Amino acid sequence: MRRPVESAQYTSGQYARFARDHGVRLSVGRKGQCWDNAVAESFFATIKTELLDRQSWPTKALAHKAIFEYVEGWYNTRRRHSSLGYLSPAAYEATQETATERAVA
Predict the structure, then answer these.
(1) In a designed cystine with 92, which of 22, 35, 71, 87 is the match (CB 3.0 to 4.6 A)?
(2) What pLDDT does residue 97 have?
(3) How far apart are CA 105 and CA 98, in angstroms?
(4) Residue 71 — left, alpha, or beta (φ > 0 → left; ψ -120 to 50 → alpha)?
(5) What angle do CA 47, 59, 78 make, to 5 degrees?
(6) Helix-strand-coil percent breakdown of the chain, rounded to 5?
(7) Within 13 Å of residue 57, how many CA atoms lie on the same side as its CB?
């Protein structure tokens, strides 16, 4: 039986060996599984739509500052996410910490 050729960089043997040799644990699932990247893909689509595509960015520094302010000032603290039960990431983390504290006590 012929072994299938892996053409995608993120699933290549060379890439996996490089990551392993440098102490990086890959989060890639099996071929054809898109779920492990769904949240990240949603985030990048959202930041493009809500921030990046709304104006031009004359310098990398201005874009970097705007992205930081968007993520820390809005996305993580106030924007609700369906994958988190319609809580913001900060609120979700707080509920998880509280649940963990109760479980330990």
Answers:
(1) 87
(2) 77
(3) 11
(4) alpha
(5) 30
(6) 65, 0, 35
(7) 14
Domain extent listing, the chain: 34-104
Per DSSP, 81 falls in state B
Residue with tokens 């599984």: 33
For residue range 56-80, list pLDDT tens digits in order.
Answer: 999 999 999 999 999 999 888 998 8
- Backbone φ and ψ for 77, nearest 5 degrees, come out as -100, -30
Q: Shortest CA distance to 51 belongs to which of 24, 29, 79, 91?
A: 79
Instruction: Report the residue count for the chain.
Output: 105
